[in-house]
Structure formats: C-alpha cells, structure tokens
Amino acid sequence: MSSSVSYNIDHLRRLMQRLRDPESGCPWDLQQNFDSIIPHTLEEVYEVVDAIERKDWPHVQEELGDLLFQIIFYAQLGQEQGDFQWSDVVQGIVEKLLRRHPHVFPDGTLDSYPSAGFTISEAEIKANWERIKAEEKALSGTPDLSPQPPLGDTPRALPALKRAQQLQQKAAARGFDWDTLNPVIAKLKEEITELEQALAEDASQDKLAEEMGDIFFSCVNLSRFLNIDPETATRQCNLKFERRFQRMSELLEQQGKHIRDVGLPEMEQCWDQAKLEGY
Fold first, then answer.
1. 224-233: long-range contacts (C-beta < 8 A, 24 or more apart)?
2. CATH says 160-228 is which class?
3. What is the pLDDT of residues 176-204, one digit of tens each?
4. Residues 9-84, CATH architecture
5. Where are the domains of the chain?
6. Which of 22, 114, 170, 226 is 20 to 30 A from 243 in CA distance terms?
7. What is the DSSP letter of 140?
8. How far apart are CA 45 and CA 67, in angstroms?
9. Would you say 29 and 19 are in contact if contact means Cβ atoms under 8 Å apart?
C-alpha cells in the first residue's frame, strides 16, 4: 500500500529514533543490540539475493528496504553508544570509494573525471584496489604489532563456501597455487578416493566429516579455476533441483499417483522426463 506522503532517508532515521525512544518506543526494538540483530541482517541479505535471482523486482525493492532498515538500526545503536554517527558511516564510505577508484575520480573528488581516451584493464583496477587497501591499513593509526595470520583477516562469519574461496584466493596471491587445471581436478579425485577409503574402513563420523570437508574445499578450488562463484552455482543448483522435483511430483499426479506411494524406479522415470522437458 503506497502513501501520499513522500519519505526520504531522514524520515527513516527519525522512525528508527522513535522506535528506540526509551519512553514511547517499541519494546522489542528497545531490547535489541548489535549482536541480537545479526541473524535478522543475515536473513534480509539472503532474501535480497533470492528476490534478485527470481527476477522478482517488486520484492527486490521491498527487500532492499528491509536491508536498509538493518543498516539504519546499526547506525542508531552506534550513535546511542557514542561510537559513531550516521554521517560518519556515509562520510567514510564515500571517502573510501573515492580513494579506491582513482581511474574514475582522478583528483579524489566527485567532480573529477579521467582524461579523454583514458583506459585501464581489469587487472590494473584490481591491483590498484589491493595496493590502496594496503596503504589505508598502514595509515590507519597505531600499527597492530600482534602476529598476523598468514592469510590475513578472513571473516569467520562468512558462508563456508565463500570463506573457502577467499582463503584460496589469498593463498594463490602468495604463490600457493597450481598453474594448470589438471592438478586441481586430480586433487578432487584424490579427496573422493580418500572418502571411499574411510567408508571402507568404517571410519568415525568425525573422520567422514573431515573427508567431506576436503571434497567441498577442493570443489571450491575447482570453481575458482573455472572462474565460477561456488555460492552462486550452488544456489542455482538448488533452484534447479527444486523445479525438477516439483515437475516430477506433477508427472506422478498426472498418472494418479502420489510421491509418498511410489518407489524409487517410478520417481526416477518421472525425474528423467522432467529433465528432458528442461526442468
């Protein structure tokens, strides 16, 4: 339902302040803190991704609003704690993006433009980005003298496939990588063989879980070599399985059968039919 009133970001910030008002605010919102709303933030991110992948643009708009509210919520909490203001959030991201895009903003201002005919490769853009990030870290204030992990800081809260991808990218940047695809595929086959051996030896669940983890990690590495994002590929595979399973159920129903009442051979026959139909 749309409103005749036109709202902007300042109205959303005021709404958030009202929700957190100790005297007249919402009891649920008043109970929240940085840690408690993390699960809601993650949920909103995945709902944005889901709506985009389904090309459901009205819901993309709605889900982006929900995600924006999460950011406003964090900014309000930061302000209440005296850690930072909303203006600090905006100022920081604009300054950072101006610094990291010298090929777009050569003077570091929004009104500067590259010279006519200027070109730059994707590899050069990436190299500049990493160089500028390193310079920012060096100039960020008091240096951190504590030992740094060899692969740097890779957030542990990332989805496992995405974190594996980032760890492998950092290892490759330090020279720990294969030059060609064949050893990558051979490594995946080796990990599958090790799982088969563990199964034959009636290994413990912990050992089987370890071997499965090695297989997943090797699959991510293969995806990296093929320039395929493993998280995206897995989501798309999930959607394909969902569509095909739905079609298999429909085909069974057309035969007067229910999926709960048939055996695997009949399901596989309908599954193959659904696959032929492009599901």
1. 224/165, 224/168, 224/169, 224/172, 225/178, 225/181, 225/184, 226/181, 229/165, 230/161, 230/162, 230/164, 230/165, 231/159, 231/161, 231/162, 231/165
2. mainly alpha
3. 999 999 999 999 999 999 999 999 999 99
4. Orthogonal Bundle (1.10)
5. 9-84, 99-140, 160-228, 233-276
6. 226
7. S
8. 7
9. yes
